[in-house]
Automatic annotation (TrEMBL):
PANTHER family: TREHALASE
UniProt xrefs under InterPro entries: 6-hairpin_glycosidase_sf (IPR008928), 6hp_glycosidase-like_sf (IPR012341), Glyco_hydro_37 (IPR001661), Glyco_hydro_37_CS (IPR018232)
Family: Belongs to the glycosyl hydrolase 37 family.
Enzyme Commission code: 3.2.1.28
One GO MF term attached to the UniProt entry: alpha,alpha-trehalase activity
A Gene Ontology biological process term: trehalose catabolic process
Name by which UniProt lists this protein: Trehalase
Pfam families in alphabetical order: Trehalase
Amino acid sequence: LPPPCDSKIYCTGDLLKQVQLARLFPDAKHFVDMPLRKPADVVLAEFQQLMAKAQKGMVSRTELQQFVTLSFDDPGKEFEQWEPQDWNSRPRILNKISDQKLRAWASELNTKWKSLGRKIKVAVEAQPELYSLIYVPKPMMVPGGRFIEYYYWDSYWVIEGLLLCDMPATAKGMIQNFLYLVDRYGHIPNGGRVYYLRRSQPPFLALMMDAYLARTNDTAFLRENIHLLEVEYEFWQHNRSVNIAVGGTDHTLNRYNVQVGEPRPESYSQDWELAAGLSDGEELWAELKSAAESGWDFSSRWFQPPTHAGTLRDTKASAVVPVDLNAVLCKTERLLAEFHRRLGKAFQAALERRLQAVQAVLWDEAAGIWLDFNLLTKQRNPAFYPSNLVPLWAECFVDQAVVGKVLHYLQVSQAPEHEDTGLPTSLARTGQQWDMPNAWPPLQHMVIAGLAKSSSWSARETAFALAQNWTRTTFSLYHTYQAMFEKYSLDGEGRPGTGGEYQVQEGFGWTNGVALQLLDLFGDRLAAPVSASAPRAAPRLAAAALLVLAAARG
Ligand SMILES: OC[C@H]1O[C@H](O[C@H]2O[C@H](CO)[C@@H](O)[C@H](O)[C@H]2O)[C@H](O)[C@@H](O)[C@@H]1O
């Protein structure tokens, strides 16, 4: 299998291995984010000399430390100060928010764009081999914390947030960056580093374009770039599709599948240790990258068999046909068809094939919901994940009767003791960050926005109840910690998120974007808690459940 990229500094080779296994930095990502002070060939030649002198080729920790200090600069030096030109202190969304405290909070979230904005120095374009950062021409918003570069799927919620804050120029620049990456690589890397190059993330590019067009009507931008939206779509069709036969009919759907070897450079020591003693370590490393491509890194959702008792070693993400990936590609096909109609051309057949495949392979009539399909067991995974509801948001269904069934599923399957705080990522407590007790902003958004766009009153009321709960959770913790977190734990009525391979990060791009989107959806009704630490009095989902039952009874 090829390495994560060809760089013998940042992706493969002895230097990377020895520095990362010596654990020179508390966070392994630190080393692979450090720019070089000298040309790569000089650094590699100097390291060879060091190895030649060392016992059995193993350089001592002290020498490694000295070498890194002399040859590498601090992470972050690749960026220059940048404040968005289109930032303004009174975006129109504030007028839609009735609650005074929530309005003041939204105003503070708007101010956060100033601190999350970055511009890449021209030096990175001139001498890319000195950096792990992948150059893009326009300024961008980064997630925050250890994530000092751009990320693909995070940027969808950031772009929606920017558009709500009347910042279409910054939003457009971020989309231009992703189009630039498609033009250059044929796909969008997981994030803005060479070590992310050979894997992507959930494909939200067409949805970003749609969000931008909805606010600007900039058809000229669409016309100039529609070919690149198709190139990205074709990347998923050619490299990430799989055929599944159901009832004598062949269907094509998609999965995450990264056939790339070696440990992830940004988590080298963890991956190395995880594979210790395994005969098929290379296969496990490829599966970890497939899971990272899903954005859900890591989760029991990818364990084979799917079990609450599994460990990271059981990860087999490429065996799963995920509901949310296929729903997002279904949305992409619908959007490409619409975009082409807008430009006077046809593009519809792929959408119809996808609708049939999602219905045949992923819809489970007995459970009343879409479920991930496992290619090895040929079974659907019955476990609860918010991703099971994503087709509602992505409008990837034909029969409107699914709405009532999905609402019923939501009421019976998630952990009721957490309902006032947020939707859990799964019901399995594995210690992985995309599992119980964590709740992630993008998942809350896709479920809530999916229910909110329904014509069913019960679905819209359930959406409101969930939005109210999530808003209170993030608002209360914001006031307790003065921070917006990348994820939240549902334990104890809400805490900063836990688990996984790094400390919970603050900033945070998609969290701010989702908070603003919920305020945009329900700003006339959402209410802040009386005091930030007061016990909750949010409309309980149980109340919404009664509405669902009433609706089901007609
Ligand atoms: O360093 C470990 C992993 O970190 C990233 O994943 C997490 O943060 C991303 C940025 O917010 C987010 O997109 C992803 O969903 C999170 O799980 C990175 O994307 C991974 O590839 C990396 O291995």
